[in-house]
Amino acid sequence: MRVLVIGSGGRExxxxxxxxxxxxxxxxxxxxxxxxxxxxGENIGIDPMNFGAVLEFCQRxxxxxxxxxxxxxxxxxxxDYLRAKGISVFGPGEMAxxxxxxxxxxxxxxSRHGIPHPRFEVFQDPIKAKEYVNKTPGPWVIKAxxxxxxxxxxxxxxxxxxxxxxxxxxxxxxxxxxxxxxVIEECLxxxxxxxxxxxxxxxxxxxxVAKDHKRLxxxxxxxxxxxxxxxxxxxxxxPEDVRSIEKDVFEKVLRGLQEEDLDYRGVLxxxxxxxxxxxxxxxxxxxxxxxxxxxxxxxxxxxLAAVFLEVARGRMNDVPLTVRPEAxxxxxxxxxxxxxxxxxxxxxxxxxxxxxxxxxxxxxxxTMPLGxxxxxxxxxxxxxxxxxxASGKAGEKHPGSPVPVKTWGGRVxxxxxxxxxxxxxxxxxxxxxxxxxxxxxxxxxxxxxxxx
Length: 452
Ligand SMILES: Nc1ncnc2c1ncn2[C@@H]1O[C@H](COP(=O)(O)OP(=O)(O)O)[C@@H](O)[C@H]1O
Ligand SMILES: [Mg+2]
Hints:
Largest sheet: 6 strands, antiparallel
Number of strands: 25
CATH architecture of one domain: 2-Layer Sandwich
CATH superfamily of one domain: ATP-grasp fold, B domain
Shape: globular
Helix content: 25-40%
Bound molecules: adenosine-5'-diphosphate, magnesium ion
Distance between the termini: 42 Å
Strand content: 25-35%
CATH topology of one domain: D-amino Acid Aminotransferase, Chain A, domain 1
CATH class of one domain: Alpha Beta
Oligomer: single chain
């Protein structure tokens, strides 16, 4: 089948890699893709937010399946738009995407359906929000309602900081108005895990649980980032916790989606705090996590594209996916200065050396071919069978770098290693990182060590 992956980050490189191994995939396109996805398929230089152009391309190629990586096109209705024209899409419709695009909607959905969550209040009036902060004891968790690229949440015990950020969010001074409405919620303690499940509207199928590492510095210090690494499985998670995630979270979500007639066909991400009272949902995302995708997808075996197509059609049958017994560790290599300002354009060496290690994968995100802009096909005009690049069967391909690259973003690469256990996968991931060099390379040294 002909498959299009939408997006350009490490998550999409991992999705493209995993789909390229599917026996049922004959042609693979990534829109717009990155230098890493060039070895797996064809990068298509169309802006995914230009739905008309995406549709035209899909119709021309007779695309069998579109897999949407990031939240923005989903929140803007790309799935409904393409489905209305008969194209199968892995990704929820616009209404269901509000589970991510509006934190107030998500929390209200959780309370309507008895899904465990922290207590919360929704505010649209800054005066009332400030009154609330003034009369409650901290710490406060203040969340912009709308999409904020991971920059919309403040957890603080400092009342004046809480009040200041509330003002800035609700006046639209920061976050482009995504914080005009806010959710203030109870601050939970425990440890966080990511549970993702394939959802076809009728059934769900849980993927291996992972743990993200969101803060920049070792010891979970420093600012929040898009994610500095991940591990899977998560050792302290008990079988009871997993059962509770299935029963109290995903089963109830599924029932809620059905009752509210929300079209959900894709992957649902639950960001959970495992508290003394069991798992509670901090947030939903309506797509794979990044870097959780880079960590979890390598643990899956089976024809992923066939499963995604069934999900897209609302008929997930037996889910012929198995989970490899190996543990997975993903370390994100970033540019010094991220998540603040950083320089870019530094030559990256050693990706091939890292890939030569057993069970190591390198997914690209903030990279650029040395020569300049990422080579993309112009609208994929005469595209035919782009499963090209690396030699050998698709299943043997590395997510390698077909072109020499330089740094071009904050999070540059995700390095994933599988190992017999977490310790072995960690060691291997860090050995691979030590082989990859660029000026200003920064990565955490304690992925998989913290909070376990
Ligand atoms: N109720 C809460 N109690 C404690 N910490 C929280 C709570 N909600 C969020 N956090 C922290 O803030 C982070 C970001 O919040 P989240 O709801 O996941 O928003 P986003 O990922 O959109 O920034 C979480 O990963 C968690 O560390
Ligand atoms: Mg989150």
